[in-house]
Every structure is written in C-alpha cells, then in structure tokens.
Design goal:
about 375 residues; globular
Length: about 375
C-alpha cells in the first residue's frame, strides 16, 4: 500500500471515529432532554395518585441514570454501543458541571469547611486505603489490582483508578474491572445514602460530608447530594474535591512504591512534574468559579446577581444530567465476570469500612458546621 493510500485510510478512519463520537454525544443529549421532560411530566401526571408523592421526590439523577442504563441495553443489542462510546464523556461532563457548581457556593463556605474536609480526607483515605491494601494481600489479589482497588474505594473512584493504573502500569483489563466495580457499588449508593441520611436524622452538613467521603465517583456524589438537599450537595462536593486534590499525592506515592519496592527499579524517584501532571485540575476551576461568583455577588448585590447565577446553575444541572446519562451508558458487566470473587469481596468489605469510619468522621467533624 502506498503512503498516499495509507494517509487517506487514516483520514477516513479519523472521520468515521469523529462521526461516531458525535453520534454518541447526540444520544447523550437526547436522553438528557428526555430526563428533563420526565422530571417535570411525571410529578404532574401522577399528582393526586398514590405514586404522586414518590414521583415528586424523584430527582433528575434517578431519571438520567435509568435512561442511561436502558440506552446501554438497547445500543448493545443493536451493536452500536462500542462505536458510539467515544461520545459518552462522563469525566468531561462531570468536571465541567462541578466547576460550574463552584459558582453557587460562597467562597466563605469553602474556607470554613476546608479544615474539617482536609482532616476527614486524610484520615478516611489512610484508613480505607490501608485496609483495602491489607485485605487484598490476605486474599492474594495481584499487587497492581490491589493498588487500583485501594485508590478507587478510598479516594474518587474511576479517576483514582486511572491515576493509579498509570502509576503502577496496570493492565487495561484491571482498570476496566475496577471501573465496573466502582459503578456497581456507586449506583445503589446514590439512592441508599440519602435515604440513610433521612433515616438517621443527620443534618445536611453531616449527611453531605458522609456522602462526599464515601461514594466513590464524583458524579455519583453529585447525584446523591442533589437528592439529599442543596446544602448537603455543597458540603459533599467540597469533601469530595478535597479527596480529589489528594489524588496526585497518592499517585506519586504509588509510582515510587512500585518502582522501588515491587519492581525494584534503580533511581526511580518521582519528579515534581509528575505530581502536577496527576493533580485533578478541575479542583482549581471549582475554586476559581466560587471566588469569581462571590466577588461578583459582592460587587453587584444579591438581587442583581440572581439571574446570572441562575443561568450558571441551569448549565451546571445540564452538564450533571449529561454525566449521569453517560454513567449508565458506560456501565459494563463483562469485566466483573472475569476477575472472580476475591476483588469483589475486597471492594465490598472496604466499602463497608468506608461507610462506618466515614459516618463517624462526618458526625465528629461536621455536627456543628453552620450553626
């Protein structure tokens, strides 16, 4: 094959890939539009019926995730899911939504919550990561998979697993498995934790801190926080972004540990640039949006700023809906079947420890918050 033919084939392949990715985005946007429709139509249609009170309490994350899962099944059956997957940009959608969320949180709230959030993050990550690593060793789980599981359950789910996979050079199959486990455990927690917050009579700050410290994915934290309440969502986001900020530290530590101890590579000291490379940059965007909005409100006044802040909040909700739809579309069962029961047992046990320790820390550190 000539060079010209090869270049033409490459260009055609790229065009096809872009077309399918745009098709995937179109699917996500269409399902997001249906989510918006159902959010308003279902409560109105069921008003006065036995289901009406339940329908009124159902928030947009529920519709978005269910529609995403249904879309996943349909597209898989049609053989289109993998081709369209390039448009299911969960990470981009959720990070954009969270940056916009920063505009609705007064920077003073972030500053006042930072101390407890940092302490909670340090203690929770240390305890849960240590427990997961230990139990994985006891059950004979491969060291690289243990690193992925420990990072995912203790920090921030798929993002942490991706960072850990790069740090320890894990196999793609191990990353796919861990990501699937994260989603399997995160989906029910979106609904269970807000219900437990109500059942236990926890305050909004305590409930938000518990949700933010325990649910593994940032998208699922946002979904559960939205169900629990606006204040809970704000605190949950602050706690989760604090954990995210520690991702770079853990990734660099794993890089050094595996290079020096597991693989015994000489002179494998991690560079400062590696820390910055692995640091989740959207955290800075979240803080910047909060500072800008706080200064703007202070300059023009609360009443004059309502329209602009409302527009930003609408955009935030749109991007979060796109993220929740994508979560459902990206879910895979196959990797879970292939790895056996041991990693599932490790992840499940670690999630239990995370729940108990996280609740204790949330009560201890956030009980008096805002009072």
């Amino acid at each position: 094959m000539s060079l010209d033919s090869t270049q033409t084939s490459t260009r055609d392949s790229r065009r096809d890939g872009l077309a399918w990715a745009l098709g995937g985005v179109a699917v996500v946007v269409a399902l997001a539009a249906v989510t918006r429709f159902l959010e308003g139509w279902v409560p109105a249609a069921t008003k006065g019926t036995g289901f009406g009170s339940i329908a009124k309490a159902i928030e947009y994350p529920v519709y978005a995730i269910i529609l995403g899962l249904l879309g996943n099944v349909v597209l898989t059956q049609l053989g289109l899911r993998d081709r369209l997957a390039g448009g299911f940009r969960t990470e981009f959608f959720i990070k954009t939504g969270l940056v916009l969320l920063g505009a609705s949180i007064n920077f003073a709230v972030i500053v006042s919550a930072a101390g407890p959030a940092i302490l909670q993050a340090l203690l929770l990550i240390s305890v849960v990561f240590g427990f997961t690593w230990w139990l994985g060793g006891v059950l004979g789980v491969d060291a690289k998979l243990r690193a992925l599981l420990s990072s995912a359950v203790s920090i921030c789910g798929v993002s942490a697993a991706i960072a850990a996979a790069g740090a320890v050079q894990a196999k793609k199959e191990q990353l796919a498995y861990t990501a699937s486990l994260v989603i399997v455990f995160a989906l029910p927690s979106i609904f269970i934790l807000p219900a437990l917050v109500d059942l236990l009579g926890l305050s909004q700050p305590v409930g938000g801190a518990w949700i933010g410290g325990n649910i593994d994915t940032t998208a699922a934290v946002s979904a559960a926080g939205a169900i629990a309440g606006e204040e809970a969502l704000q605190i949950a986001t602050i706690v989760k972004t604090t954990q995210n900020a520690l991702l770079g530290v853990v990734a660099v530590a794993l890089t050094a540990y595996f290079a020096l101890k597991i693989e015994k590579v000489a002179d494998a000291r991690p560079r400062l640039g590696e820390f910055w490379e692995r640091f989740p940059k959207f955290v800075l965007g979240f803080l910047a949006a909060s500072v800008i909005a706080t200064l703007y409100i202070g300059a023009v006044g609360a009443d004059a700023s309502k329209s602009a802040i409302a527009t930003v909040n609408d955009l935030r909700t749109l991007f979060l809906i796109l993220a929740f739809v994508s979560i459902g579309l990206e879910f895979r069962v196959a990797p879970l079947r292939e790895a056996g029961w041991r990693p599932v047992a490790v992840f499940g046990a670690a999630t239990g420890v995370n729940l108990v320790v996280g609740l204790g820390l949330a009560v201890l550190l956030f009980s008096g918050f805002g009072s």
